[in-house]
Amino acid sequence: MMNYAKRGAALLLALVFCLGLLPPAGAEGDTITIHDASGLLKLAQSCTSDTWSQGVTVVLAADISLAGTGFPTIPVFRGTFDGAGHTISGFAWLDKGSKVGLFRTLGEGAVVKNLILDGVVAPGGSQSQVGILAGENHGTVEQVTVTGDVTGDEDVGALVGVNGSSGVVRSCTNRASVTGNTNSGGIAGRNEGMIQSCTNLGEVNTGGNDAATNSGGIAGRNTGTVADCTNHAAVGYAHTGYNTGGIAGIQNGALLRCFNDGEILGRKDVGGIVGQFEPYVTLTYGEDPMERLDGALASLSTLMTQLSGQIHSSAGDAVDDISAIHGSLSAIQDVIHGTGSDFNTDTSAAADQVYDAVQTINGAMSGLLDEVDRLTRRASADLDEVGNQLTALRKGLKNLTGTLEDSLSDTGDSLSSTLDALEREHSGLVSELRQIADETDRLESFVKDALQAAARLDLAGILDAYKRWDVGSIDFNGHLSRISGHLEAMGSDTFHLADRLTTLWQEAGDEMGDARRDMDRAARALEKALDALNGHVKDFSQGSVEQLRVVNSQADIIEDVLNGYLDTLGDKGQERLDELDGHLDDISQRVDQMTQGAGQTNQELHATTTAIIGQLDEARKAIVELTEVPEKTVKENTSAEGAQSGPGRVVGCRNEGGIQADTNVGGIAGAVSPELSLDPEENLELDSENLLVDTTALLKAILYQCDNRGPVTAKNECAGGVLGRGEVGAALSCTSMGPVGADDGSFAGGIAGLSRGVLRSCAAQADVTGDSSLGGIAGEGRDIADCIAMTRIDGSGERLGAVAGWADGTVSGNYYLQEKAVGIDGIDYAGQTAPLSFGAFSALEGIPADFLTFRVTFQAGEQVVDTVEVPYGGSLDPAAFPEVPSDGGRYGAWAPFDHNHITRSLTVEAVYEDWVTTISSGGERPLLLAEGAFSPDARLELAQRPEPVDGAAAYDYQITDGAELPDTVTLRVCADGLRGSVRAALLQDGSAVPIEAERDGSYLVLTAPTAGTLLLSASGSGTLLPWVLAAAAAAVLLALLFLRRRRKKTNAAASV
């Protein structure tokens, strides 16, 4: 009995120990309430198992600080975490790693809600999938607010690093700043699921990160759906970073009803809603030649069996023929499968080599483009200077021609020959520099086309691009060598020029003083400009040597790979075709033998043999198709129906923020084009099996019913109110009201800067500025239909139009308000563009109401003081202007504007300046000064009456000012030369009313109204009038003497 008791006690003790090994909480259906940091730490320890939290509900009962606790992360959570409105603060993660945040992973079924989280997450190491709340989310996050800072490399988001395809982030707010290299967003770094009704208030990549790519106010990269979200924060840094957007940096999913009013900055592909809009691609495949061949061979085998039975009785040796035929069929199948395998292997290997080479060139292009741009910009001014000085020298020589003595004519001829040589070298220099810029553009276009072709494993397309852009003729080193030659020759010619000018002046003596000075000055300026050009070319050679080496070596690799691939393909293809033809001929001979042996009287036998021959033909056709490059067809979905569902669309979005970048800048989208930097295998998702079939790619990239109200500015080129540059896609029913400018370049439009897609039913009201290719709808476009333009064009170059600067596609049904610009490139084409008066324009169906409402908004800083509506072409009485708000005792006024003819809405800003304390009646020594608080526009007018009043000199004076004047001011009257006491009076109602006056040096000081008649007299000197007249006469005389002396100096300088 005692033994049983001992055994029972031991068992009980063991059970107790086992219970101690279980997690602190957690079983399906459990609810855990956490009050402090230790409770969160226990939760983190329990969640190292990916199943423990399933069915668990965690509720916070208090605000919790994790500062100084060394809190790790919660590894995996699949339950419900309810913050109950509480705050978790002090969370920090600075260790190495990826997939980090308060939660590393929120699994499917997880819910995190009603939480405020403050933290700093800045891991080292790989630094991907980084968020303050979670590294990755596959569950639901709602009503969560984060503050703090998050930093990482890839997939960096303030809430979550990656929101997976099943993830939902709803009604969340970010106030944290975000810094990352690739895929950085205010809510998620990368979104594959749903982000809805979220708000971002935290800056994203505003610190000047050169490596920043794909930065967005909500998501850095979006392949899912972002709906009803708002960004109020700045995204990006001036002239730095690629693919920057107010909502998404890059996307091919869906952006629906989103809003941005933050400032969006970057270098290239920058938009108020999305930086780069990739088209969504749907692939459909044609019949596989391999399957077709297999089907033909299978049918052929069946027919052969049938034929064998039919002729068995009449052809004793048919067994041998059938066996031989089956052997040939097996051999054919082996050859076919070998051909497909070799083709795939060769194609894949060649495509990989070409892709690597093109990507290497692409990597060098950015630096090369910068160097070429720098050379072109610097050399342009110097080349102009060289041309101007050569013209000046030629002009000087021409003026001398008639005055040169016969003895000097040979020197003049020699000088003319030297100028001829210099002008030839100058033309050569200009040509070489233009060719460098042209070849850089060609190389950039080839890289783009080649990457797109490589993405489809289309080696024929790569070869076509290589030939189309004539890459083999690109020779930067040759141009640099020739430029050096031109500069060397010009240096030698300049030396001879100086020598011959010296000879000419020595022989001519002093007779040609002015001409000598002008020509010597031109020669020195020419030499200086050539020295500067030499420096710029040397800088370019040194700065681009590595990029040029990369471009040349990789271009050679591409050419060698393509030629080698085509040679191999041709040799192998012909070898396999010869082998197949041999087997097919054997089958035909065997069939002929069998049919001859069986006779022609059997109709069934005849039908079978005919079918066999037909299947042989089918097999031959399939074999031929196997050696052909599959045809790839690209189509686009540009319909309004396509904007109603699915990915590849930006619908109902609005931007009110300012958008600035160097290239490809849009109020809604910076660029609509495929991303070229991705791995080609992933770009179109073509695997080796699909390479043998014809493929149709359906692209969808639709901007639908989007609205821009912010200014759009490109430093270089491609600025549009809706779209900066569109290689594909469509903008449908979009509007834009805001200025659009390409400051130092071209391609700017009210809707699109440059569009090779579709622009339909869009409306623009904009002031468009730039150099060339400027248009009310598109700077340059292709298909433009049913659009409305109310734009003013300001350009110094060519291709300027009220609808488009240029268009080369289908253009129809476009209308514009008749002001100054006209149609397309200054011409209206019937049925394409038509001008309308304001009355007819305002009656157009579908014109936005805001286009017809003109408001003058008076604004002081952020404060809107008043808004006044005016009709088109109307005026606004300055008396109706609102009062300028005070600003710390400074004078305020409304900035000047044309208030007599208002044709656009405008904002008038309050301008503040310090008050002017003293104004004068004018002159070097003013006769009258007024002291007080005056605006900068205040004036003091003084006029002497011709006759004295009551024996005193009389002066009418008046102070005028846009600002309100006081009742009285302090006046200072010049009293130089007066003796005795001076008396002052004001003329009021025809009588002199004495006023007190005191001497202050040479001025008499008194207080008087801001306008009136001043009477002055002095005892012992009669009236003041003679003295005042004498002083005035003296002042006039001094002024005349000064002007005369200055004129003499000017004339003397001009004669030098």
From TrEMBL:
Span of the signal peptide: 1-27
Name of this chain's protein: Peptidase
Superkingdom as given in the UniProt entry: Bacteria
Keywords from the UniProt entry: Membrane, Signal, Transmembrane, Transmembrane helix
Bilayer-crossing regions: 1024-1043
Organism: Flavonifractor plautii (Fusobacterium plautii)
Gene3D superfamilies, alphabetized: 2.160.20.110
